[in-house]
Structures are given as C-alpha cells and as structure tokens.
Amino acid sequence: MKFFIDTANLDQIREAQDLGILDGVTTNPSLMAKEGISGDENVFNHYKTICEIVDGDVSAEVIATDYEGMIKEGEYLASLHPQIVVKIPMIKDGIKAIKYFSSKGIKTNCTLIFSAGQALLAAKAGATYVSPFIGRLDDISTDGMNLIEEIRLIFDNYAYNTEILAASVRHTMHILQCAHIGADVMTGPLSAILGLLKHPLTDSGLAQFLADHAKVNA
Ligand code: E4P
Prior knowledge:
Layout: E1 2-6, H1 10-19, E2 24-26, H2 29-34, H3 40-53, E3 57-61, H4 67-80, E4 84-89, H5 92-103, E5 108-113, H6 116-125, E6 129-132, H7 134-139, H8 144-158, E7 163-166, H9 172-181, E8 185-188, H10 190-194, H11 200-216
Parallel strand pairs: 1-2, 1-8, 2-3, 3-4, 4-5, 5-6, 6-7, 7-8
Helix pairs in contact: 4-5, 5-6, 6-8, 8-9
The structure holds erythose-4-phosphate.
Residues 6, 26, 28, 111, 131, 133, 135-136, 167-168, 187 line the site of erythose-4-phosphate.
C-alpha cells in the first residue's frame, strides 16, 4: 500500500519523507488555508516546494467548479511540476474534466467520494485516483471502511486501473483497516503514520536488551 501524507505543512512532509516511507502528498484548500497559504502565486509556489521535497504524486485541488474553469486551472497546475496530480471534485463537470485530463495523459484525483457509484463513475471517466473519505463517513455514524470494501470489489470486477486512495484517514487503525481491505493508497496525518511504530512490548523489550548489554559491558 502506498503512503501519502495529507497536509500542506512542510515540516511534516519533510519528516515523513525523511522516514523513507512516503509515496506522495495530498492537499486541499482547507489544508492550504490552515498553513496560511493564500494568493495564487503563493499557492503555486507552495505546490512546487512540496514537489521538490517528495518523490511521488502531489495532489493540487482546483477551485473552479465549472468545466472550462477546471480545465484552465488544472492545466496550469499540471504545468507547474510533473509530479502534480489535478484534484477534481466529484461533480458533473468534474467527471467531464477528468475525462478530458485522462485523454491528455494528465493524472487526476477525484475527491469527495462518499458512495461506490461516485467511485465507479470517476473510474469510468479515467481518474488516476478516487478519494473516498473514510473519517467523514465515520463522523456521521456510517462505517467508512464498508465503502472502501465496496469500491475494491467493483474495481476488481472490472480490472479498473484507477487506484483507491483512502482519504480522510484520522488514526492508525484506519491505516491498518485500509491495508486489510486492499486500498491501493492511504492518505493521512503524520500522527496516524507514526502511530504504526508504537507497541509497548517493543519499548520494554528494547529497554531490557539495553539493560542486559549494559550489565556485562559496564
Ligand atoms: C483528501 O485528499 C482530503 O484532503 C482529506 O483526506 C480530508 O480529510 P479530513 O476529513 O480529515 O478533512
């Protein structure tokens, strides 16, 4: 499973990259705003900086919601850096834009997926990734993992190349559940990724090894 980090925070992106396990980055307008990045030029430069830090795909979301606007904005975003993936919302014009970008060989990430039908439509249009939002479904008492399972089944039935990018991952167990089901990619916060490191028996075992070593090497 590929690991993407879901943030626009450069320190966190660097930390994940330094770990050697990072395959890409997803951002969205809220995450950019959280870092105080505003104004087109600053936003574009921020995407370029992220691309210079990581080796993999970097999702940059369009703000336009009409077909022409999404094409213009998406083409510009894609021209910023070869690692940019144009992130398009799951709306009617978005599907048309995904089809267009797919025919031009420009990678897309269809965002705000909350049903298997939406994922199927995005795959048919040729999306590189679909982003089902697990955490936001959990927030409304709906099991987000069921959606990942359903999309996995549909994509496998028809051997779609579109990758399932499990998004809105909130904690470490989400990552493990995604891996059980077979999501191609997960995008989550650094804290959820670092949570995979932790086990109390690892800590106590290491402390014992070091203490035993110190006893005979004093
Ligand atoms: C996906 O690409 C989104 O950026 C993200 O995963 C949304 O997560 P949230 O529901 O925690 O805001």
